[in-house]
């Protein structure tokens, strides 16, 4: 007999798409076309030196008890500093210094000052992967942004990975979590492709090994199988909003909860060479998480120009009609994609094109 989390709860009211399912522009005005052409002219003028340099370079070179009976998640001994998390990067203890997660105490938690992070950046159009997920995860909503965990009942831990590759950039995303906050573990964070997305047991899945970095709803940070105190436990059966700021330049991961910054959780992420992705997971039945906001910072001025161009072009078909050079078309098309590749400066694309 399988023990279940939240068996008798109501079914989610939104329309869900089961595993293996697939979810399913207007003519530009004359003014939009003029603005697009003006931006394109300025954009291409700024690229002349980069393209010349690139051409020059080319020649130069189990049974589960009820919630009340569950064993407590290990917490640090009282004599340790609970505000310091030391997640392990490699299995060897000697490598622990390569990754140090710092958790803020409550005195350092601050409300937003004005706008949310990266509001001067641009919208990032990633979504949840239909392929990289547990069979106990269903997707629905616009652009697959709504995740339903264990839509019938729970007999393990289910996770799903986002399509966005995070390395080297700065990204912020927010999750609206339904009131069904309970169970062994609901987790939010990042992971590599090696991080497991399903296990037939109630566990803290994200951060069980060196391939994940996660925050559980019990206020604990997990990495390398080690838990450290970070913030207060979330209130059960109460909806909440979680924000996550990934800074690939500084190598940090910071969490926000209901407009309060909880402080830096993990450091050293700029040393990770494998692709990193957003990840969420849950043991609780019929829980729902919605990706309500996703933004990224601009890499450079060209990236900002590209965002303006794409705002007017909007579709790949219209982009192809411009008959631009292959490298520039590819660079612009990246902004129309599902974010499965890192944001790459145009200069690097030009160099790759001419050298390889």
Automatic annotation (TrEMBL):
GO biological process: proteasome-mediated ubiquitin-dependent protein catabolic process
Gene3D superfamilies cross-referenced by the UniProt entry: 2.60.120.920
Lineage of source species: Eukaryota, Metazoa, Ecdysozoa, Arthropoda, Hexapoda
Signal sequence interval, chain numbering: none
Record-linked CDD domains: SPRY_SOCS3
Ranges of Polar residues composition bias in the record: 1-16
One cellular component (GO) term of this entry: nucleus
InterPro entries in the record: B30.2/SPRY, B30.2/SPRY_sf, ConA-like_dom_sf, FBXO45-Fsn/SPSB_families, SOCS_box, SPRY_dom, SPRY_SPSB3
Origin superkingdom: Eukaryota
UniProt feature, compositional bias: Low complexity: 25-34
Domain SOCS box: 291-332
Stretch list, region Disordered: 1-34, 52-81
Tagged with keyword ATP-binding: no
Domain B30.2/SPRY: 105-298
Pfam families given in the database record: SPRY
Name of the molecule in the record: SPRY domain-containing SOCS box protein 3
Localization annotation: Nucleus
Family assignment from sequence similarity: Belongs to the SPSB family.
Annotated keywords: Nucleus
